[in-house]
């Protein structure tokens, strides 16, 4: 299978190589395309930096990447990289997308904001099954533990190919002999980081992000991760909810012309960031 590896920590993150090497060892055709700079918290944003209408690629190779795997640095958010890859931007359209390994856990409803998960959600909306992997540390040490879990997760993904679903995996940063195993988990009510407004002034607001210690409900991803388990959760992109109450409706005289085509501006699907620099 053709496998695209991306992340939100950037092309220089060692987690990229760990995930890419697992896919390569499994016999897949692997290509790495990751942001040229960090895009943590980008969710599924289609932000990219363009020059003359062209999305720019820059040299880059994650440390520890196995020889023979092509790698690109891209001046774009990870979800845009996944979107572009589905149209052949980095060679043949991938059969699978693997996102991570993220530096820090992506648990609970905070997964909404994750660029790692956002890339995977972007892929599945294009019909590409995806895996998002995160490690519960900002500076992981036990990459070998993550490798073990990723091998199992990738094998499951290739055997099941879940349609319209992302397999979201979190791994504790502990040694292999301390890992209790891999468990299916539901999302916690909140993630591992809490935001707060620290200070406000004339024309500005300072927001802080801090790791929190809280009692998570047993069976949730955050709880199991704290207790030495790797976790696996199936996520899906936005979907129609037919439940009550029904959304509001109204009808105008134009409804008498139902069936006639109406010209509608589709707007922009991508935003340009600042002009790229060599920094």
UniProtKB/TrEMBL annotation:
Location of the Survival protein SurE-like phosphatase/nucleotidase domain: 3-188
SUPFAM superfamilies noted in UniProt: SurE-like
Keyword Cytoplasm on entry: yes
Broad EC category: hydrolase
Catalysed conversion reaction: a ribonucleoside 5'-phosphate + H2O = a ribonucleoside + phosphate
Record EC number: 3.1.3.5
Nucleotide-binding among keywords: yes
Family in the record: Belongs to the SurE nucleotidase family.
Protein known as: 5'-nucleotidase
């Amino acid at each position: 299978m053709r496998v695209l590896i991306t992340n939100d920590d950037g092309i220089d993150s060692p987690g990229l190589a760990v995930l890419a090497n697992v896919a390569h060892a499994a016999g897949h055709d692997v290509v790495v395309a990751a942001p040229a700079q960090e895009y943590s918290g980008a969710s599924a944003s289609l932000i990219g930096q363009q020059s003359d209408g062209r999305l720019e690629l820059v040299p880059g190779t994650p440390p520890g990447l196995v020889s023979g795997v092509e790698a690109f640095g891209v001046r774009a958010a990870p979800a845009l990289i996944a979107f572009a890859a589905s149209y052949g931007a980095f060679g043949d359209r991938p059969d699978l997308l693997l996102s991570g390994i993220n530096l820090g856990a992506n648990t609970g409803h905070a997964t909404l904001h994750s660029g790692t998960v956002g890339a995977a959600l972007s892929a599945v909306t294009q019909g590409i099954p995806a895996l998002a992997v995160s490690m519960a540390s900002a500076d992981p040490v036990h990459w070998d533990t993550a490798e073990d879990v990723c091998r199992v997760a990738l094998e499951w993904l290739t055997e099941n190919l879940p349609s319209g679903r992302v397999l979201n995996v979190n791994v504790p940063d502990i040694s292999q002999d301390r890992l209790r195993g891999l468990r299916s988990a539901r999302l916690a009510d909140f993630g591992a980081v809490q935001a707060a407004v620290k200070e406000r002034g004339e024309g500005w607001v300072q927001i802080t992000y801090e790791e929190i210690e809280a009692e998570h409900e047993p069976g949730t991803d955050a709880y199991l991760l704290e207790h030495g388990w790797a976790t696996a959760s199936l996520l899906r992109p936005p979907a129609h909810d037919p439940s009550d109450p029904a959304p509001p409706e109204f009808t105008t005289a134009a409804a008498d012309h139902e069936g006639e085509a109406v010209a509608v501006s589709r707007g922009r699907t991508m935003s340009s960031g600042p002009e790229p620099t060599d920094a």
